[in-house]
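Schema walkthrough. Field components (list of strings):
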Amino acid sequence: MEVALAIVIGVLYAGGLYLMMRRNLIQLIIGLGLLSHGANLLIFTAGGLRKGGAPILAEGEKAFSALPADPLPQALILTAIVISFAVTAFALVLFLRTYQTLGTDDVDAMKETDT
Amino acid sequence: MTSLILRTATRYMFPPLLVFSIYLLLRGHHLPGGGFVGGLTAGSAFALYALSFSVAAARKLLRIDPFDMIATGLFIALISGLPPLLSGEAFLTGIWWEIPIRPSVTVSLGTPIIFDIGVYLVVLGVLLSLVFLLAEEE
Amino acid sequence: MILLPVLPIIIPLAGAIICMFFRKNRRIQQTLAVLFSVGMLAAALSLLMHVRGGDIAVMNVGSWPAPFGITLVVDMFSAVMLTLGSLMAVVVSLYAGFDLARGHIRFGFYPLLLIMMMGVNGAFVAGDLFNLYVWFEVLLTASFILLALGGEAPQLEGSIKYVTLNLLSSALFLAGIGILYGMAGTLNMAQLAQTVQEGGHSGLVTMVAIMFLLGFGIKAGLFPLYFWLPASYPPPPLAVTALFSGLLTKVGAYSLIRVFTLIFSTDPDFLHSLILIGAGLTMISGVLAASSHYEIRKILAVHIVSQIGYVMMGLGLFSHLSLTGSIFYLAHIIVVKTNLFLLAGAVHRLKGTYDLHKLGGLYKERPGLSILFLISAMSLAGLPPLSGFFAKFTLIMAGVQQEAWLMVVVALAVSLLTLFSMTKIWAYAFWKPAPTPLPDLQPIRPVAWIAFLLPMAGLTALSLGMGIFAGPVFRYAQAAAGQLMNPAGYIQAVLGGG
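Field assembly_structure (string):
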């Protein structure tokens, strides 16, 4: 299972970085999205893959009878997803504004500030 | 951009979506749900309304400016962290009150739910301000 | 006391909320922003007083005990960063009231400024890595919007570069966090430090360290990852640029110092040498790039890069003295750099241009402004007895002590070139007569002008004070560096006492 997920993460990273290096703004934003999905999946995989119940002790129990799932990676991923949602939404607005102001979505045309 | 089918469907979809969002908000302490999902559901209801009617109509239906909603939500979330300070505990410590309704039934209400209501409003406000902004660009 | 470490986060949040309710009224917004920044400064100062003796203030949010919950930790290094950051917020919100166009304020300059300060302060007090990531995102999101405020073409272009590279760096940072969690099973920095010191996984630790170095390096503007900075810093309104240059790259530098002294301190031969090489190249490339520009704002912005190099030099040398130098230098640079930007803004307000070829003769017209600029510029270049001299002197002494002769030579040469850049601005804008007489854009009453210059005079005085009273400042920095060099105290404070 880890191997399969590792390959998926690799594909997401590769795809994300490839799209980020394209010249089109829309492809850039999709690339950023893929990259953050890759990172989330990485946290999920690194946190350990196992089948387990919710980590909640039943009434009266002092210890888990079976090893429960680790809730922390999921909490981290949820937070990271919320953040990337907000940032992607903002980036979309910014890119739209840029396209309207500059009249182009080609990143190569944006070199006025590079000197 | 307005189709009769979508509009009619939206009329029927809109109230259940809002009720469902409240349901998600309230069950989110011990069961899956919570302010964030609830806010997203409510936001999608309004987004659907804006899509099938118009942004202006959705704004009118909402009555409150989304920015005010963000501010109110943040304010509520901030306030929810303060009660534990009275009993000398750290900021944002969860405090629960047991409210008896009938001898056999008590409802437990806590500061986390106040925090979640704040989150609900913030998410709804942020989502709608972005959706309205993008939709009005057209 | 139980509330104290969280106050630098709550106060700006409360201020931002109240500002949002008064969206329509810019007078009230400005007053609120100044008031809440002062409140933030007061909280930071009381924290500084609290930790001055070497204590470490720890707070567990929500009363969840340390390795499990969110922990806020304030040591001497955090406290001084909090104080200076809040001071910059006060000065910039005062300055913005005079200088900012109405449109910017309508789009929410003040609430965004306060939200950004919340993120900056949060990053300074965060006690676990994921929390640090969240605060980074808070400050970045606010800074994205501030950067694009007004929406002119160069600004939008700069913003795209800034946003893209910062998101890339966040993704790297996040991936590093994921691997570290899988390895150690915790993200609490104190516990991580313990786990990593106990050994094992050494190759993996080094790889994660490199990911953090890249992630924070982009944010701090380290060679060769700084190229977004000259593109995105100069275009926005000057109040924004001044605040960014004073704080944002410094948060990256702070995080690098924190992480590489606390967690990744087991392999200094490789990691810290790498940082040292990066620092040297950062200094050289920054100062050389700056010397080719003839626009005040651009010269100053590109110089940020070379100054980050000095801070990183202290981390790379990795001794008690060199970290003392880094902390001293960070404190010095936050004050002086913000001040120089604000003074450049004052020039722009008078003449409407930043171009050195068009400016001239300002010394004759505005001696007060010129003196303030001269003091700050010389402090940046490191002339005694100003604050920059002692900061650089400490760093160079640390280099001599460890016989890192090449770094010493580079640091001295870069210092000389900085002096060249600063004298260039001085000679062109202030000293030589204007090529064609440039009238003031609009007449300013002397009283208003003095009120406008007051915050900058304050910062200049602070820079002078840090030079004249270098002894106490140095001793404080030394104690703070001592805490950094000896992570046991930090671990004990977080995990032991609770």
